[in-house]
Amino acid sequence: MPTAKSGPDSYFAKNGRLRGPAHHNWQGDEIGTEAKHSRVETERGLAKTHQCDHCSAQAQAWATIHGAEGFDVWDYMPLCRSCHTRYDGPPSTGWFGGVHVVGEDHGMHKLSEDEVLQIRGMLLFMTQREIAELFDVHQVTISHIKTGKTWAWLQ
What we know:
Layout: H1 11-15, H2 33-44, E1 61-64, E2 76-79, H3 81-88, H4 113-122, H5 128-135, H6 139-147
Antiparallel strand pairs: 1-2
Helix pairs in contact: 5-6
């Protein structure tokens, strides 16, 4: 079975581009979900170009086969939205690739929940700019915390 790292028919092999361990950005198996799905799309194409494995409708996304680690492009199956929901369960609230991720679970977070609570207390006697400098974030980040645009769910 071909893998994400090999294959004479792969896009990179056809175009003479470096790939796998020879590429300067190669991270091996130290990658996240987004990079794993990117490997699948590179090798197998977009999910919407396939039929759903469960009901034969047009697929919408690649789903990791339960029990697989997702490092091989064949650890994924194309599923339509309804089959994907039945397979993995309903998504949590909000959206990040179909799932809403907030707070410390978000890959781009710079502050912890404890720091946000601390910032809320500091807003009573310090300026937003002073707080931002202390936590090495932009003043707008502090403003968003104050107004509830971000971290509103945290009490």
